[in-house]
Amino acid sequence: MCYKCNKKNKLEFSMNNENILVALDASQTSIDVLKRAVQLSKIKKYKLTLLHVVNQSMFENFFPQMQKENITQSIYHRLASMLEEANASELEYSIEIKEGNTAETILEMASNINACLIVLGANSKDDFTDKQLGSTAYKVAKKSVCPILFIKNFCDKPYEQILGFTDLTDTSRKTMQFSKAFFDFAKIKLVHAYKQLTDFAITFYNANHDKETARKQVKEQAQKVFETFRNEVDIEAYELLESFYNINDVLLEISKKENAKLVILSSQGIGGVSSVLNGSVSVYLLETLESDVFFHIA
Questions:
Q1: Which Gene3D superfamilies match (predicted)?
Q2: d(CA 2, CA 293)
Q3: Is 108 helix (H, G, I), strand (E, B) or coil?
Q4: Angstrom distance (rounded) from CA 7 to CA 14
Q5: From CA 185, how far away is CA 220, in angstroms rounded?
Q6: Angle in degrees, 0-180, between the axes of helices 170-182 and 211-233, rounded to the nearest 10
Q7: 250 with 241: CB under 8 angstroms?
Q8: What is the sign of the dihedral through the CA atoms of 274, 137, 295 and 1?
Q9: Among 38, 40, 78, 214, fewest CB within 10 Å belongs to which?
Q10: Backbone angle region of 277, left / alpha / beta, with phi > 0 → left and psi within -120 to 50 → alpha
Q11: How far lies 129's CA from each of 180, 256, 259, in Å?
Q12: What is the per-residue pLDDT across 40-74, written as a single tens digit (0 to 9) for each?
């Protein structure tokens, strides 16, 4: 991991794992995935490892005359050309070309180089109109033990305004502390959506006479817990949102309203759907957010 406990038992960013792994496929959007990784590497002064996983069966089926060495050399030159286009000349970097299952190879490489971050496209489409995760991205998210930056948009200027979605759990606290250290060049706005009592729930419990009082208590409790959490993670910008029905819709709405370029989500691992933001909410947002997503596994 890229964080450790100091003497006060607080999480702090560790500078020991200064290696970003960027996984690149053959899609046209790969150059923007690389540009974002280069951008972060320059800001953080980290080493960059480029990885391309060769689908050997595809070449054997459709390009049977091509020699393995020629394929590898062609890919290497293409990646080197992309690095030049991404203005990565002053960075320390390495290029890795591997054969095998793409998701498994990405995870293995991340482990081997002790990567502090995996950067990859959300899918293998040739444009960013489709924001949903492809099978490889989902498998990496499901099994990764290090943070992942999913790229869903063209790369322009560095991230400046970041939204951090939280459910106020200990897992989310670790995520926000990690994110604050990693994205120390940007401003993070902490966002929490709480569930308010609906008219149906109040009527169901025959509590219409106490409706306003009950809702006021729910809001005050949410404000109190949120304020405690915010002070613990020491993030100045924040917004508390009220949701009567679907928390997903409320969070997606603020992401669009703020024109967020990056949203922070956290998880304990989505294999058993035990992620934060009420379980399936985190997975749903990972799929549907139009912004890039920083997915931290705590």
A1: HUPs (3.40.50.620)
A2: 18
A3: helix
A4: 14
A5: 33
A6: 50
A7: yes
A8: positive
A9: 78
A10: left
A11: 29, 15, 16
A12: 999 999 999 999 998 766 666 655 556 667 778 88
